[in-house]
Structures are given as structure tokens and as C-alpha cells.
């Protein structure tokens, strides 16, 4: 048998089939591929290797197809995965080479360095990377680069050109010179973060931050690491250990499958090895939801993101926010604008918290609402100091879910006690429009500033010793003088009559 003849069909098929199947799901080729009936290898031919890069599929839809490329793959191809092909120093015209190929371990080989010739590197498009015009031989295929969404890269694998096709189909029992292979990747999607409604409208309320991620499909490879972390803003304080719940598919996860740790304000859920990682491996494709919980302790727009790390690869969530603002009330005399001490206020949610664009807040309280209560045991009243001011420490404005385009929220201030010597306004309700406080170079701006005037009490009139009394006394004195003058004139006239 010459070197251009088949050395041993049985030997080649046994060795190469086992090798190819173990290394890379060598499956597939186009209908136009060159085929030769098993028996002779034409060493004057050239061949090709076409790499089809697809995501891991579930058990009902595995990534498998014939190596002649005649079958299509339903799942999405991965773009941007780079492959390098290296021709190894094996002479397929030597019958003894075929004997050794089945024992060749690709894990001990590299596409770099010596021991072969790199024939090309291809950046896959639409999940396909094609290496054409290859000399017949033994090739090492390496995945050398991949986009960020790829969690684990395919292991290096070996392909012979030609390849003895033992799979069913029209090309079964033939030598394939154009070989199609289907290595798989695990990919991860960025987690989705949301923000729950606060437990109350006042500072000191708690807020939930759920993080959802689809557990990647990694096949039998499993997970080497899986963490979900949330680095909370300084204006958020973790409640307890900072984790309200961990759920998969809507069911609570046993706490033995994960640990919760905190470092400063960073809270991390780490799935244990091996229990937690094995648990996740049984839930591939399901939704994992980790809900972080924190108390709001400061005002402003508080941003929040989460990071999920799978097998050493970080995936960052979208950004959410919750915003809060404080209110400064100034109480003054309506006549002279002097500050007034001792005015007492309560604050209530408005019946219309988010008015239409351009509309003002109304001073109507939400039906059945109670005064907001701050702190423990719960402060509901705020009293102006000697400078006439009092600050309500912070109220909820909005978040990523609650009309995120709205930058203000309406509240109603109710004056319950006027300063001594002053009267309550006819309508003690004052509408106030609150925006998120902001940090500037000179400090933190207020969410709202409102000035409320008071008028003095009516008091009993004093005795008539003022200007009006003096005027009456002048009139009275003048009358007395006039009367006296009249009497004098009359007396003189009478005396004059007698003397005549």
C-alpha cells in the first residue's frame, strides 16, 4: 500500500473518531464539501476547517450536527470569537501516526510557540470562522479571544484534514476534506437591577434592590465561581447582613448554598463550593434573584448597580436610583419679616404627588394619610427655632420605577401651632414642591425652601391716652375755653347796661 492509499480504514476510523468526538463535537460541513469514498486519501487535495461558534444549548437542543455541515444549528451564533489554527508536525502518510493520534491530548498543546506552524487566525462573523486552502494534516484549533459575554472558552481540540466521517447522512463513510466543527461556549447576560418602593416616605425608610440574572448554561462543565455583589452608596446602610432574599425560579434558596459577607458598604452573596455551585448547575437557564435591602440615611440622588461574577467574569447591571430631598421652613412676621420662634408643623403626602408638567402643587392632603413620622420612636412635629427656621431631614422624591422622569414630588405642610402672639393662617395647609437635594462645591442644596408668614393676634384696646384721646381732650378744652369766653362777654354786657 503506497503513501497515497488508505493505510488502514479500520485503524483510522477507530482512532480519529474517538479523538474528534472527545475533543470538540466535530460535526458538520456544507453540501458542496469535497468528499471521497473511504479507501484512498488524495494527498494532492487541500481542505478546510469551518468553525461554527454557538452558545451552549439546553439538554433538549444540544449543539450537534454532522461534520459535513449539512445540518443547521438553531441557536444564536457568537460573533467576535477568534480562532487560531496550527498545523502540527505529524505526517499523515505515515501509518504509525494514525496509531498515535487517538492518544494525543490537546490540553498539553498550544497554538503559540514551537511545534508547528500557525496557519491563520480568524475573527468569527455570524458565528462562523473559516480556514481554507489547508494542506492535509493534523491541526490544533484554539480559541484565542472572545467577547466579554463569554464566560468560558472552548478547550483546544484536534482536527485531521481529511476527517473520516462516521456520522449518519449522505456523507457517511467518506473522507471529509472540508470539515465543520462545533465547539461551544457559555455566555452570560448582564444582570437586570431594579429598585423597590421605599417602606415609607421619610428618611430612615428601607429600600429593596432586586438583582435578576439568568443562570448561564454551561453544560456539564459546571461553575467554578458565582457571586452577586452590591456596593451600596454611603447614604445607604445595609439592613442586617444586607440581603433580604435569594431565590431561584421564585423559590427560596437554602442558606447552606451561599454565604453573605460585607466589606464596608459592599454586600456579596457567594455560592458555596461545591454545594452552591452544584445547585446552580442544576438550575441552568433559570432566573436567580438576589434582593439587597438598605436603610436610606441621606438625601440626594442615590445611584446603585450590581456586579455578578461567573467563573471569574464580571457582568455589570444597569444603574438604578432612588432620590430624596430635605425641606427648610422659614417662619416670619408678615409685617416686618422678622423670624418667629415656636411655630409647629407636620408634613403629609399630597393627594396629587406628581402634578402634570408646569402645574403647581395643591395643598390637598392624600385621603386618610397620617403625618410622616421620622426616626424612632417617631417624630411627627417640627418646631422653628430662634432664627425662624426648621429643617425636615428628608422625604422621598422619586426613583427608577416611580415616574423616573419626574424630578419633584408634592407634599403638604400643616401648621398646627402658631408662634406666641400670632395667629394661624386661615388655611394652615401649605403645598411644597420637593426636588432631590444635590451636592455642590459649596455643600448640599436643599430639596425645598418655603417661607410662611404669620400675623399678630388681635388684643383689647388700651385706655384713650393715645392720639385719639389727646384729640378729644383738645376738643374738650377748647369747648371749656369757648364757654368761659362766652360767659365773660355776657357778664360785661350786663355790667355795661347797669351803668347806663
UniProtKB/TrEMBL annotation:
<dbReference type="InterPro" id="IPR013783">
    <property type="entry name" value="Ig-like_fold"/>
</dbReference>
<dbReference type="Pfam" id="PF16555">
    <property type="entry name" value="GramPos_pilinD1"/>
</dbReference>
<dbReference type="Pfam" id="PF00746">
    <property type="entry name" value="Gram_pos_anchor"/>
</dbReference>
<feature type="domain" description="Adhesin isopeptide-forming adherence">
    <location>
        <begin position="203"/>
        <end position="322"/>
    </location>
</feature>
<keyword id="KW-0472">Membrane</keyword>
<feature type="signal peptide">
    <location>
        <begin position="1"/>
        <end position="34"/>
    </location>
</feature>
<feature type="domain" description="Gram-positive pilin subunit D1 N-terminal">
    <location>
        <begin position="45"/>
        <end position="186"/>
    </location>
</feature>
<keyword id="KW-0572">Peptidoglycan-anchor</keyword>
<dbReference type="InterPro" id="IPR006311">
    <property type="entry name" value="TAT_signal"/>
</dbReference>
<keyword id="KW-0732">Signal</keyword>
<feature type="domain" description="Gram-positive cocci surface proteins LPxTG">
    <location>
        <begin position="455"/>
        <end position="495"/>
    </location>
</feature>
<dbReference type="Pfam" id="PF17998">
    <property type="entry name" value="AgI_II_C2"/>
</dbReference>
<feature type="domain" description="SpaA-like prealbumin fold">
    <location>
        <begin position="325"/>
        <end position="444"/>
    </location>
</feature>
<dbReference type="InterPro" id="IPR032364">
    <property type="entry name" value="GramPos_pilinD1_N"/>
</dbReference>
<dbReference type="GO" id="GO:0005975">
    <property type="term" value="P:carbohydrate metabolic process"/>
</dbReference>
<keyword id="KW-0964">Secreted</keyword>
<keyword id="KW-0812">Transmembrane</keyword>
<keyword id="KW-1133">Transmembrane helix</keyword>
<dbReference type="InterPro" id="IPR026466">
    <property type="entry name" value="Fim_isopep_form_D2_dom"/>
</dbReference>
<keyword id="KW-0134">Cell wall</keyword>
<dbReference type="InterPro" id="IPR048052">
    <property type="entry name" value="FM1-like"/>
</dbReference>
<dbReference type="Pfam" id="PF17802">
    <property type="entry name" value="SpaA"/>
</dbReference>
<dbReference type="InterPro" id="IPR041033">
    <property type="entry name" value="SpaA_PFL_dom_1"/>
</dbReference>
<feature type="transmembrane region" description="Helical">
    <location>
        <begin position="471"/>
        <end position="490"/>
    </location>
</feature>
<dbReference type="InterPro" id="IPR026345">
    <property type="entry name" value="Adh_isopep-form_adh_dom"/>
</dbReference>
<protein>
    <submittedName>
        <fullName>SpaH/EbpB family LPXTG-anchored major pilin</fullName>
    </submittedName>
</protein>
<dbReference type="InterPro" id="IPR019931">
    <property type="entry name" value="LPXTG_anchor"/>
</dbReference>
Amino acid at each position: 500500500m503506497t503513501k497515497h492509499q488508505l493505510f488502514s480504514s479500520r485503524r483510522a476510523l477507530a482512532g480519529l473518531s474517538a479523538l474528534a468526538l472527545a475533543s470538540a463535537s466535530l460535526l458538520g460541513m456544507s453540501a458542496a464539501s469535497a468528499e471521497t469514498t473511504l479507501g484512498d486519501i488524495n494527498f494532492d487535495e487541500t481542505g478546510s476547517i469551518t468553525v461554527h461558534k454557538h452558545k451552549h444549548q439546553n439538554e433538549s437542543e444540544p449543539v450537534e450536527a454532522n461534520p459535513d455541515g449539512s445540518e443547521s444549528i438553531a441557536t444564536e451564533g457568537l460573533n467576535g470569537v477568534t480562532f487560531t489554527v496550527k498545523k502540527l508536525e505529524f505526517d499523515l502518510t505515515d501509518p504509525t501516526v494514525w496509531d498515535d493520534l487517538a492518544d494525543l491530548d490537546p490540553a498539553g498543546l498550544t497554538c503559540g510557540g514551537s511545534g508547528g506552524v500557525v496557519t491563520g487566525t480568524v475573527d468569527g462573523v455570524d458565528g462562523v470562522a473559516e480556514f481554507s486552502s489547508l494542506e492535509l494534516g493534523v491541526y490544533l484549533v484554539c480559541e484565542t479571544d472572545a467577547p466579554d459575554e463569554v464566560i468560558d472558552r472552548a478547550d483546544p481540540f484536534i482536527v485531521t484534514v481529511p476527517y473520516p466521517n462516521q456520522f449518519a447522512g449522505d456523507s457517511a463513510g467518506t473522507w471529509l476534506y472540508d470539515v465543520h466543527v462545533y465547539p461551544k461556549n457559555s455566555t452570560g447576560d448582564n444582570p437586570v437591577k431594579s429598585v423597590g418602593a421605599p417602606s415609607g416616605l421619610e428618611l430612615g425608610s428601607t429600600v429593596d434592590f432586586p438583582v435578576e440574572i439568568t443562570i448561564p448554561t454551561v453544560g456539564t462543565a459546571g461553575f467554578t465561581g458565582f457571586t452577586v455583589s452590591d456596593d451600596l452608596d454611603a447614604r445607604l446602610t445595609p439592613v442586617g447582613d444586607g440581603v433580604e432574599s435569594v431565590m431561584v425560579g421564585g423559590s427560596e434558596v437554602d442558606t447552606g448554598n451561599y454565604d453573605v459577607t460585607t466589606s464596608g458598604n459592599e454586600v456579596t452573596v457567594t455560592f458555596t463550593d461545591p454545594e452552591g455551585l452544584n445547585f446552580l448547575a442544576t438550575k441552568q437557564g433559570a432566573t436567580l434573584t438576589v434582593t439587597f435591602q438598605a436603610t436610606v440615611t441621606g438625601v440626594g440622588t442615590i445611584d446603585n448597580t450590581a456586579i455578578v461574577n461567573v467563573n471569574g467574569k464580571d457582568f455589570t447591571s444597569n444603574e438604578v436610583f432612588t432620590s430624596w430631598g430635605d425641606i427648610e421652613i422659614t417662619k416670619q412676621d408678615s409685617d416686618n419679616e422678622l423670624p418667629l420662634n415656636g411655630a409647629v408643623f407636620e408634613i403629609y403626602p399630597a393627594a396629587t404627588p406628581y402634578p402634570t408638567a408646569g402645574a403647581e402643587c395643591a395643598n390637598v392632603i392624600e385621603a386618610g394619610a397620617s403625618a410622616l413620622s421620622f426616626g424612632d420612636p417617631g417624630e411627627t412635629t417640627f418646631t422653628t427655632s430662634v432664627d425662624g427656621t426648621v429643617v425636615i431631614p428628608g422625604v422621598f422624591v422619586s426613583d427608577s420605577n416611580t415616574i423616573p422622569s419626574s424630578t419633584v414630588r408634592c407634599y403638604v405642610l400643616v401648621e398646627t401651632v402658631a408662634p406666641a402672639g400670632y395667629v394661624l393662617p386661615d388655611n394652615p395647609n401649605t403645598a411644597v414642591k420637593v426636588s432631590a437635594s444635590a451636592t455642590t462645591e459649596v455643600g448640599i442644596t436643599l430639596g425645598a425652601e418655603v417661607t410662611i408668614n404669620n400675623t399678630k393676634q388681635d388684643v383689647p384696646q388700651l385706655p384713650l391716652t393715645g392720639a385719639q384721646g389727646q384729640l378729644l381732650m383738645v376738643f374738650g378744652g377748647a369747648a371749656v375755653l369757648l364757654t368761659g369766653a362766652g360767659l365773660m362777654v355776657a357778664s360785661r354786657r350786663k355790667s355795661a347796661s347797669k351803668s347806663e
